[in-house]
Amino acid sequence: MRQVAYKVIRQVTAEDGYANLVLNKALRDQRLGGRDAAFCTELVHGTLRWQGTYDAILARSVSRPLTDLDPELLDLLRLGAHQLLRMRVDSYAAVNEMVTLTRSEVGQSRSGLVNAVLRKVSQKSFDQWITTVAPHSDDDLFGYLSIAKAHPRWIVEAFADALQTDGYELDDLLDADNEPPRVTLVARPGLAEVDDLVEAGATRARWSPYAAVLQGGGDPGRISAVSSGRAGVQDEGSQLVATALATAPLEGTDAKWLDLCAGPGGKSALLAAIGSQRDALLTAVEPLPHRAELVRANLRAVPGDHRVLVGDGTKPTWPEGSYDRVLADVPCSGLGALRRRPEARWRRTAKDVEELRPLQERLLDSAITSVRKGGVVAYVTCTPHPMETRAVVDTVLAQRGDAVLEDARPLFPGVPSLDGGPDVQLWPHLHGTDAMYLALIRRT
């Protein structure tokens, strides 16, 4: 299992692979299930999630700069450090297994270094190492949290800005970000009921009327409603923002809905299922053909003549004001879903946020242009970064003058801690969801 985990980590770090996709394929190919699959998953996700922290610890345990180590060797050391510091693995067994793995993967000559470094790492607990390698929190809180909670400093600072705090709530958010997420299912209305998912072993979720949580993980594909497309895997936060758009008050016609940035199609499927119960049809737009195919696959079980278009949402091919409801779930940094993508925090940079901002503004402007007078737009991101959320909305509305921001909080009944509005920010540490953001905009 360690060898499988190591090969997955190498694909992620050396080939920019996505951990969830590479790992799932490896587990299938090796026919690993149950405890073996869970152990392998923790090896991979934990090593990738805590990479920055382990690098700080290894830098104190290696006699040369980490940049001088071969990448293969560094990944082996990170994998060993995770077993020693964050898993219930006997230290002697962890070191010996990693030395054996080193011999088979990079050669006998490197095994002595791995043995020496990991034995040094094993001499302190995780908390003791944090005290050793992180700055004191009173002197540099963000620097301390960056090491202690395994988040790049710029992300810690962005979260503090979004929360408007640098206190215990920031600490809670970073802790929640490091917890493996639950597998949440959505029962697409008119096709499946939450009771169907409960009978298959899930439990009802807290906020979304369509959500259930698959207890103990497991393969959701074994549930017939999921394998048939009547249900799907979807974070509860994603369900809530799509449902908010569908339930926003609307006068006049309500027959044409648009998902402007549809891929891979989870929100499209939920909107289409809700719309089908009201004789509303959804048009889903996705610029990449392979992602458009994923949207079609998600819509396959939903009744109605819903359309999937391959096209650029910033360049509408339909007349202005064609739609009654529009979802603009724009490309973003994805900082709200770091718990699902353990490698993402080390790949993203502050520059990514800057580079995405013009596209986000163009897509929101296009969404407002696409909706009719009196219609509603949901601007959605899976990030709490202020420059990708309210700043984008404020900029676009200031330029247009024909749309207003409305209070979205009543569209989240029963959901606590939504702060002052009018937009809504969900949080992993408060709501157990991804950090989804929604601004509800009505064209005037």
UniProtKB/TrEMBL annotation:
Domain named SAM-dependent MTase RsmB/NOP-type: residues: 159-444
Binding site for S-adenosyl-L-methionine: C261, A262, G263, P264, G265, G266, K267, E286, D312, D329
UniProt keyword Cell membrane present: no
Active site: C382
InterPro entries cross-referenced by the UniProt entry: MeTrfase_RsmB-F_NOP2_cat, MeTrfase_RsmB-F_NOP2_dom, NusB-like_sf, NusB_RsmB_TIM44, RCMT, SAM-dependent_MTases_sf
UniProt KW keywords: Methyltransferase, RNA-binding, S-adenosyl-L-methionine, Transferase
Residue ranges the record marks as coiled coil: none
Family membership: Belongs to the class I-like SAM-binding methyltransferase superfamily. RsmB/NOP family.
Record-given protein name: Transcription antitermination factor NusB
